[in-house]
Design goal:
The chain contains 2 helices and 11 strands. The chain has 162 residues and is α+β, with helices and mostly antiparallel strands. It has 2 domains: 39 residues; 120 residues, Immunoglobulin-like, CATH 2.60.40. A hairpin with a 2-residue loop joins strand 10 and strand 11. The protein is rod-shaped. The model has no long low-confidence stretch (mean pLDDT 86).
Length: 162
């Protein structure tokens, strides 16, 4: 009789060990996927150039970057390590009475490649805007970058995973 209890105890310990092993293996797999994603993470931003400090009175905390123009249009650039797929941008006015352009799509944005978008640089230079970019990485994780622009000057950039 006691042999059956020992056999049952060994089986329960084996099952518990197997469950623990599966949990630990799952954690290792998730960690390795996160590390791989970090190496291939895209990061879309609005193209910018250095601002000449003599062009305007600088207030504390203001940026030295202004939106740059590619053929008279604003442009996006991927400064991340991997390509961005199914990119979508939305231009939202912060000023009352400004007309809000609709949402637009791009197919993909390769690394360090400027992609003009059909928003004239004059539009961004005249007024205050938030440019919201949503896109996917190779592993289909969604990301969002929000850029606040005041009269053509980049004020804030936020990048996060959705």
């Amino acid at each position: 009789m006691w042999l059956q209890y020992v056999s049952l105890a060994v089986s329960i310990l084996t099952l518990a060990g197997l469950v623990w092993y599966v949990c630990e293996t799952s954690k290792i797999r998730k960690t390795s996927q996160d590390q791989l994603e970090a190496m291939r993470r895209p990061c879309l931003v609005v193209c910018a150039t250095r601002r000449d400090p003599r062009d305007a009175v600088m207030r504390p905390g203001s940026s030295l970057l202004i939106v740059s123009s590619r053929e008279g249009l604003a442009a996006l650039m991927n400064i991340g390590n991997g390509p961005a797929f199914n990119a979508r941008y939305q231009l939202t006015p912060l000023d009352e009475g400004c007309r809000q352009p609709g949402s637009h799509h791009l197919v993909h944005v390769l690394n360090h490649e400027a992609n003009p978008i059909p928003i004239p640089i004059q539009t961004i230079s005249n007024g205050n805007w938030i440019v919201t970019l949503t896109y996917e990485s190779i592993s289909k994780r969604l990301y969002e970058s929000k850029t606040t622009i005041e009269s053509g000057v980049l004020v804030a950039v936020e990048h996060r995973q959705i």
